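[09:14] KT: can someone run the structure on this one? pasting the chain below
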Amino acid sequence: MSTFSFLQDSKEDAAFRRDAREWFEENLPKELRGWSVRPPPELITPWHRKLFEKGWIAPHWPTEYGGTNMPLTQRLILQEESGRIGAPVLSRQALGHIGPILMRYGTTQQKARHLPKMLSGEVHWCQGYSEPNAGSDLASLRTRADLDGDQFVVNGQKIWTTWAHHAHWMYALVRTDQDAPRKQAGISLILIDLATDGITIRPIKTIADDEEFCEVFFDNVRVPAGNLIGEMNAGWTVAKALMDHERIGNASPQLAIDGLDRLKKIARATGAMDDPVFQDKITRIELDILAQAAVFAHTVELANADMPIGAGSSFIKLVGTDTVQEIGDLLLEAVGSHGADLEAIDTPDGPIDAGGFFRQARRNSIFAGTSEIQRSVTAKRVLGLP
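[09:31] RB: done, C-alpha cells below
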C-alpha cells in the first residue's frame, strides 16, 4: 500500500512505520477490522486499552497530561497504518474534543478527575450540543441550567447525541442567562454525570442501521456548580474552540484510507479495476487523500502551536466529508447491483461491506455542522464573499 503523507519518510519515520505496521498486524483482532460503523463498547474498549498501554491512544496530548507529544509525522503514520489495516475509528468525544478543552479551560480538580480516565477508556463521553430546534443554528439552544445554591438545575432536550446510551458523562451547552441580549451570550458549558436522576436516554436508528445517536431528556437534573467549564455565560467561546477540535478530527485521513483500501479490493474482485476510466477515478481519489492529509497535518500544526484555526475549520470539515463520500460513491459503482445488499460482499481479500460504508459516509455531511453551513462560513469568513 502506498502512503499518503505529503512528506517522504525519514529513516527514523520509516522504522517507526515498520514497527507500527507490525504492531497493528499482531494486536488488532480480526473481528475488529473493516467495520463501517463503530463497534459496540464491549468490542472496542479492549482495543482502546491496548492502544493506551502501548502509549498510542492520545499521541497528540502533552506529556504532562499523559500523552506522548509524538512528532506530527509519526502521528500521521499511525493514522495511515491504522486506516490501512481497517482499525475501528475510536470515539473522539473524550480524546479529541472535551479532553483538550479541559486542558485549556478546566480547573486543576477537573483535569485530575477526568483526563486519566479518558486515556484509559474507563469512562466514555458524549456531546450535548444539538437540540430539536437548534442544530446548525446551535446558538438557538433552549436547554436551561438555573443556578440553585451550589447546583445547576437542568431542564431540556438534546438530540443526535453520539453514544449517549453507552456514555458515562456528557459535556453540554446550556443556557444560563435567559435574558442575554444576544443568543450567543448567556450560554455555558457544563459536565453532566449521566447516572444522575432525571435523565432519560433514547437511541435513534440511523441510515447505517445502527443506534449510534440518541435523544436525551433532562427533567430537573441537579449538577454541581463545580462542573462548569470556564466562566459562567462564556460557554460560546469554549464551544467554538471545541468545534475547531471536532472538525479537525473529522478531517483525519484514517477513514478515507480505510475506504480506499476497501474500494481497491472490491474493484479487483468485480473487474471494475480493469476499466481505465475507473482507474482514473481511483487515481483522483488517491490525490484527494494526499491533499486531505496535507490539510490535516497543517491544521494539527496550527493547533499544536496554539494558533487560531477559526473559520478555516469549516473548510477542513468539508475536505474530510467530500473525500469520504466520493469513496462511498465509487464503492457502489464498483459493486453495481450489489450496492443495496445489507451483507458484506465476499472477495478474495475477505468480505467487504460496501453499502455500509456508503451509508455511513452520507451522514458525514450532517453531523458537526452541515456541509451547507460550512460552505457559507467559508465563503463569508475565509473568502470574504457577501
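[09:33] KT: thanks! The two ends are 44 Å apart (CA to CA).
[09:34] RB: yep, looked fine to me
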